[in-house]
């Protein structure tokens, strides 16, 4: 209808502590990797502009502290996310088992309109250590059983498939950012064959 | 202004207080026009944050539309009114999220382009500039999800980071014991938060505004948003889509927010919760009002008013319904911010949140004179009445021309307001006088030393300070006499009025008291020219 402003998309990264959430975000946004392990305190976020379908969008990626679960930022914080990234460590199979809990907790707290359709992207990280996740097929089937879920295996260390994973995140997030139904905004008053009027204050 | 704050506070002893003899209602009001005396006192600062009025849309519009039918609707619900207002779109489906097929992930991803390095950098140049940082007042609106909706300075695109932090702060405090973040003071900056589900409004002030004054400003901003969208629509949107990017629906309305904030910084009316009337001979004002009454007797017309240079010339209302000053300010802002009304008669929806936050009134807006100074607004609940109201407008205009009503208005405008000399009181430099029961105020022109922009801002700051000290401190005051290095301030609140007066620094207290008593007598003498004293209804 009118010149659309650049979309702004909110993305949340969740997963057990140490799986590489902070590293992934740093790799994606800053192209940097550090071997040093610093536990994230509370939450942190970075933004990056990315092009999806020829549209420039801004991703705001929130990294959270896994060990504290949702306690750190408050549930209200997760509301209105456009996409959620669930990360596990391919070298630590138990971290994959937590995905279900993370997904449920996110849905419960963020409470999007249609739980089954909310977009998730699952990332198995640290493929530079172990080329293929032994849980690969398990994860694949977990993902396909959950609705709108995509799966990637990445390395935050060498950057492998990180771009692709986040490109999908951006794509899915943008799909959430759709127009409202017509009824949400009243239509302008139509005056028959009157060329002497304007519709100030109406968006249409 | 900072000096004023530190200035000596001369306490008013009991004997002093005896000098302030409360005149019996200085302005005689039969029938207050804007609001009923008992329903509206002055802005209650505790109330600013309470969602009471807006969580229960009064449904007045609905009631008017329905009136005539036997069943009086007492508890109108949103849904009902919604259907009422938007019957033409009824069929649109309420939900458009569609489930997505999950294809093989490896195929789904299109070849990612190699990102240019600079796109990865924080693109926050705007926010880093000293100009941006040094702005006196920032106002931000974000959704509860932390998405930018509006920023007074800088483009919201560049403010993603700041908005994110603000949302996290609000959310964090909220979740820790269902508390609410109200204010953060950091150095000389004051960050004030107003959470009006589903929006978060944040004001950042570097000036001397108090927390309550910033809150008041944020409430106006919130009401301005409602004025464009209605409370019902705003809530329906975020119920449907928590992640919704509200900028889409507000695009084009930013200028109203900008203009409102600029007016807030220069017009005392917002601070006082009152409007200024154009000084007019009461006979002429009556004639103008009667022209409207006689020529705009149209079903469903709720308010008819004439504005000239942001001042109220006359207001005619439907019996039973009152126009709240906050709503009137939104109307004034609408007219003040729009050039396009000057080009043609306009037909625009406007929601007046204090009147009915759940729906739109339809406003017929036109200028009556060639020079586009005198603006007529006809506010109706009937969305089909453009041509009827257009006819009314022509008839009103003819009559005002015939009886020199328009001339009287433009004469008053060229005389601007009145000079403080006219009041005949030496020592007095400037004042604001608010008649509480009518929610109207009067004030003389600005004269030396308040001619430069800088001095005017300083004077405005003094009024803010005085107003704050009187109303919003833990213990509200009735009288405050404050001697500063550049001027002496006197504030006096009674049942009937609020007076804020500015004197030279050397005035003595008895002289100041003498002066304001004379001023009150002068206002009493002039009141039927300065104020609209009787309410006119259709
Ligand atoms: N080899 C390897 N190490 C990684 C990778 N991603 C993260 N790490 C390391 O794993 C540890 C935890 O990473 P971090 O990003 O802090 O995890 P978080 O707790 O999920 O945020 C750090 O020592 C990282 O250097 C990866 O892809 N490959
Ligand atoms: Mg971390």
Can you characterise this structure?
The complex is a heterodimer of chains A (204) and B (538). With 204 residues, chain A is α/β, with parallel strands linked by helices. Chain A has a single domain (6-184), classed as Rossmann fold. Chain A is 25% helix and 23% strand. In chain A, strands 2-3-1-4-5-6 form a six-stranded mixed β-sheet, with helices on both faces. In chain A, helix 4 links the parallel strand 5 and strand 6. Chain B has 22 helices and 18 strands. In chain B, a hairpin with a 2-residue loop joins strand 8 (301-308) and strand 9. Classes of the chains: A alpha/beta (204), B alpha+beta (538). Chains A and B meet through strand 1, strand 2, strand 3, strand 6 and helix 5 of A and helix 10, helix 12, helix 13 and strand 10 of B. The complex binds guanosine-5'-diphosphate and magnesium ion. Guanosine-5'-diphosphate is lined by residues 15, 17-23, 35, 37, 40, 66, 125-126, 128-129, 155-157 of chain A. Chain B: Belongs to the MON1/SAND family. Chain B: Residues 299-396 form the FUZ/MON1/HPS1 second Longin domain. Chain B: Residues 137-260 form the FUZ/MON1/HPS1 first Longin domain. Chain B: Residues 427-527 form the FUZ/MON1/HPS1 third Longin domain.
SSE inventory with pairings:
The complex is a heterodimer of chains A (204) and B (538).
Chain A lengths: L6 E9 L5 H10 L12 E10 L2 E10 L18 E7 L3 H5 L1 H12 L9 E6 L10 H9 L4 E5 L8 H15 L28
Chain B lengths: L1 H5 L2 E2 L3 H6 L32 H4 L4 H7 L11 H8 L19 H4 L8 H4 L4 H4 L1 H4 L3 E7 L4 E4 L8 H16 L7 E4 L2 E8 L2 E7 L5 H19 L1 H10 L6 H4 L3 H13 L1 H5 L2 E2 L5 H14 L5 E8 L2 E7 L7 H13 L8 E5 L2 H4 L4 E7 L6 E7 L5 H17 L2 H10 L13 E8 L4 E3 L10 H19 L7 E5 L4 E6 L3 E7 L5 H22 L5 E2 L1
Parallel strand pairs in B: 7-14, 9-18
Antiparallel strand pairs in B: 1-15, 2-3, 2-6, 4-5, 5-6, 8-9, 8-12, 10-11, 11-12, 13-14, 13-17, 15-16, 16-17
Bound molecules: guanosine-5'-diphosphate and magnesium ion.
The site of guanosine-5'-diphosphate has 19 residues of chain A, from helix 1.
Keywords (chain A): GTP-binding, Nucleotide-binding
InterPro entries (chain A): P-loop_NTPase, Small_GTP-bd, Small_GTPase
Family (chain A): Belongs to the small GTPase superfamily. Rab family.
């Amino acid at each position: 209808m009118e010149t659309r402003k650049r979309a702004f998309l909110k993305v949340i990264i969740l997963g057990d502590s140490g799986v590489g959430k902070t590293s992934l975000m740093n790799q994606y946004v800053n192209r940097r990797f550090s071997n040093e392990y610093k536990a994230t305190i509370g939450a942190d976020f970075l933004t990056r502009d990315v092009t999806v379908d020829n549209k420039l969008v801004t991703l705001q990626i929130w990294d959270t502290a896994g060990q504290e679960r949702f306690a750190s930022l408050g549930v209200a914080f997760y509301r209105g996310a456009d996409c959620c990234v669930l990360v596990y460590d391919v070298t630590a199979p138990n971290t994959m088992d937590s995905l279900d809990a993370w997904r449920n907790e996110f849905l419960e707290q963020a409470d999007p309109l249609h739980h089954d359709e909310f977009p998730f992207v699952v990332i198995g990280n640290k493929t530079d250590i172990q080329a293929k996740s032994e849980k690969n097929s398990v994860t694949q089937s977990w993902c396909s059983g959950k609705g709108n879920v995509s799966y990637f295996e990445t390395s935050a260390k060498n950057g492998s498939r990180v771009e692709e994973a986040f490109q999908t995140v951006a794509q899915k997030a943008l799909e959430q950012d759709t127009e409202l139904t017509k009824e949400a905004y009243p239509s302008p008053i139509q005056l028959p064959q009157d060329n002497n009027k304007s519709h100030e204050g109406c968006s249409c | 202004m900072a000096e004023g704050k530190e200035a000596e506070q001369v306490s008013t002893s009991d004997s002093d207080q005896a000098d302030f003899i409360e005149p019996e209602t200085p302005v005689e009001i039969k029938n207050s026009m804007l609001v009923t005396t008992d329903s509206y006192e002055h802005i209650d600062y505790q109330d600013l944050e309470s969602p009471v009025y807006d969580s229960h849309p009064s449904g007045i519009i609905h009631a008017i539309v329905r009136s005539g039918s036997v069943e009086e609707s007492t508890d109108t619900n949103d849904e009902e009114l919604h259907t009422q207002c938007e019957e033409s779109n009824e069929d649109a489906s309420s939900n458009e999220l569609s489930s997505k097929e999950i294809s093989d992930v490896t195929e789904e991803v299109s070849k990612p382009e190699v990102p240019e390095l600079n796109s990865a950098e924080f693109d926050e140049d705007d926010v880093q500039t000293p100009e941006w940082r040094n702005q006196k007042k920032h106002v931000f609106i974000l959704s509860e999800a932390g998405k930018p909706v509006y920023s007074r300075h800088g483009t919201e695109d560049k403010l993603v980071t700041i908005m994110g932090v603000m949302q996290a702060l609000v959310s964090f405090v909220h979740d820790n014991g269902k508390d609410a973040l109200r204010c953060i003071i950091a150095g000389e900056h004051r960050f004030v938060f107003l959470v009006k589900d589903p929006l978060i409004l944040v004001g950042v002030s570097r000036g001397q505004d108090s927390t309550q004054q910033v809150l008041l400003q944020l409430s106006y901003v919130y009401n301005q948003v409602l004025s464009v969208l209605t409370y019902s629509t705003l809530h329906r949107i975020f119920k449907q889509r928590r992640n919704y990017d509200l900028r889409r629906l507000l695009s084009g309305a930013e200028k109203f927010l900008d203009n409102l904030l600029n007016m807030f910084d220069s017009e005392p009316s917002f601070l006082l919760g009152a409007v200024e009337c154009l000084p007019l001979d009461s006979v002429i004002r009556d004639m103008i009002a009667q022209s409207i009454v006689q020529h705009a007797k149209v079903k469903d017309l709720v308010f008819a008013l004439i504005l000239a240079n942001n001042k109220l010339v006359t207001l005619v209302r439907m019996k039973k319904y009152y126009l709240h000053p906050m709503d009137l300010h939104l109307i004034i802002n609408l007219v003040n911010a729009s050039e396009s009304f000057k080009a043609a008669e306009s037909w625009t929806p406007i929601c007046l949140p204090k009147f009915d936050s759940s729906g739109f009134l339809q406003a017929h807006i036109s200028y009556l004179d060639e020079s586009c100074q005198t603006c007529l607004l006809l506010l109706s609940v009937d969305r089909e009445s453009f041509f009827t109201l257009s006819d009314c407008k022509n008839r009103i205009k003819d009559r005002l021309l015939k009886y020199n009503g328009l001339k009287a208005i433009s004469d008053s405008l060229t005389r601007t307001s009145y000079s403080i000399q006219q009041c005949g009181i030496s020592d007095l430099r400037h004042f604001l006088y608010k008649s509480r029961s009518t929610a109207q105020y009067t004030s003389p022109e600005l004269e030396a030393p308040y001619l430069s922009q800088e001095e005017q801002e300083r004077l405005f700051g003094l009024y803010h300070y005085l107003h704050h000290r009187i109303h919003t401190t833990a213990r509200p005051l009735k009288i405050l006499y404050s001697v500063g290095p550049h001027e002496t301030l006197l504030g006096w609140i009674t049942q009937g009025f609020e007076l804020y007066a500015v004197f030279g620094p050397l005035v003595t207290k008895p002289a100041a008291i003498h002066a304001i008593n004379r001023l009150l007598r002068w206002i009493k003498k002039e009141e039927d020219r300065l104020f609209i004293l009787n309410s006119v209804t259709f």
